[in-house]
Amino acid sequence: MLQLIFHRAGCLIQPTRIDFNSEELAAMINVAGVNRIIQFTAVLRKHLEDARRDPALLQLFKQMRQVTYAGMPLATELEEWVVGQGVPITVCFPCLVHAHPIHTLFLTSTNRTTSAARNVVRLFPPS
Questions:
Q1: Across the strands, what pairs with 91?
Q2: Which among 41, 7, 44 has a CA at the least distance from the CA of 25?
Q3: 124 falls in which pLDDT band (50, 70, 90)?
Q4: Among 7, 55, 15, which residue's Cα sits nearest to residue 38?
């Protein structure tokens, strides 16, 4: 993944702490120009809940190119709210398939731009 980021002239921004607050996220977007984020669900959930109360933060999320979370599912109510607000959200989960004598790692993702897309899972890379 890092090779892909650097190949496309991207950069990584490290927060001051693993559980950084929403003000720091807003600064990353406004000052550093962050337009894609990939976060563990527990970290992203806090920012999305803050966006429910802060219209300016919600607007920043809506302007992102991609908001991706992984590790565990979001609460259904919060996920539906985010999709309904037009945030470009994607869920991403790795799946390990055991097939003797090899193990294969598939990355599954769902682009949640509409409620109808909830159960659509794609393999990455496409076969």
A1: 69, 110
A2: 44
A3: very low
A4: 15
